[in-house]
Amino acid sequence: MVALAYTPAVWLLNASAGWRTLLATIGAMILFFLPWALVTPAVLRASARQPLGAGRTLRSLIGIGGMGVILVPVVTALGLMLNEVAAWLIEGRRFPPLAQLTQGGTITSFFSVPVYVAVIGVGQALLWIRQASERERLRADARLDALRAQINPHFLFNALTAIGELAHNDAGVAQAAIARLAAVLRATLAVKRPELMLAEEIAIAKDHVELYRLLLPGPLDFQVTASPAAWNARVPALILQPLVENALVHALARIAKGRLSIAAEDRDGRLSVHIRNSMPDNVAPSRGAGSGFANVRERLATLYGTDATLATDVQGGQFMVTVDLPLSTTGDATA
Fold this sequence. Notes:
alpha+beta; 9 helices; HATPase_C_sf; transmembrane; membrane
């Protein structure tokens, strides 16, 4: 590309010779810049080792300048030599005297400085892009860790509050609930991966439901349905837990007999998970009802941007939460 960019200016100096001179000029430019093409990957790597900024600008400029003082004349001389060899082979032209070749190489080296600066600039730009991408990834990881860290304390607070109330009425059931709570916490804390299969995620949700069966005032009808692809889809770890907990604590704990269902389906490369629960007659939101939704919405936004949503609705007397996100199965390379 650089050779083609230089060609018009060089050709115009001998344009009177016609198209034959144009073809010869293109060939000469390609030969001249061939050494530059060969050393460019090494120059890019060297540029990445001399980052500008962060208190290293002066030291990096000295390093880049010192490398250029050596590299530019050498690479320029190689390009000129290739042109002389080609002229000797094609036209039978004799090699110029060493003094003339040295003088030509010195003058041409000054014209090669912009090429060296451009390659260094590209190397610095690529380094900046990589550093910016890494910083963004680390910020996203830290943000997700903070959001996940909010889940267990919130769940633990709700469960212990319910068990404390139960202990006044039935110490035996309260003891069983504590044992179930310990099992749930062990399973939850064992989750180290950023993603789980939906089947694993639902298994964790079932553990929560079994715990709350001991705490709820009446029986609970719990159902799960999922298409095969949805069942094997990858989802952010513990993405369903705050939603199921929200239904259990803020709705089903306030009614005598309730129903909770999780339905997952795949369609057109999307995964939709619907969580439906019975609603109490008093639909006034209880304290803390929106924290689970806010947590999940923020995690989805961090992971998928605008490509994932959480929506709520009321249908047939049931409260429904729908999480919609890109379908990613275990066979995909990335989420």
